[in-house]
Amino acid sequence: MKETMNYDEPARLLKALAHPTRLCIVAGLLNDTCNVNKMKDCLALPQSTVSQQLAILRAQGIVDGVRCGTEVHYKVTNEKVKELIKVLLGDKQDIFK
């Protein structure tokens, strides 16, 4: 059982990324920061849905937000996730541009 503990963190990260919206959000945040309003427009989703998905990503330590006045700008903070997304998606990034 001790050996499986080594897989807890990778499994947790993969579970958080295993939703198309969350995967899309993380891919879009790889190279730049973005706020919820721009994300909801690019994804054509309600603000509440984007916020819920960001909350899951924040809870897993994948993204973090920095407050700028009334807005929060999010970015990917987990280096393992950055590398994983680059391998998984190649050049299908920058969706928030």
UniProtKB/TrEMBL annotation:
The UniProt record lists the HTH arsR-type domain at 2-96
Keyword field: DNA-binding, Transcription, Transcription regulation
SUPFAM superfamilies the UniProt entry points to: Winged helix' DNA-binding domain (SSF46785)
> Which Pfam families does the record match to this protein?
HTH_5
Q: GO MF annotations for this entry?
A: DNA binding; DNA-binding transcription factor activity
Lipid biosynthesis: is it a keyword of this entry?
no
Q: What is this protein called?
A: Transcriptional regulator, ArsR family
Q: What is the lineage of its organism?
A: Bacteria, Bacillati, Bacillota, Clostridia, Eubacteriales
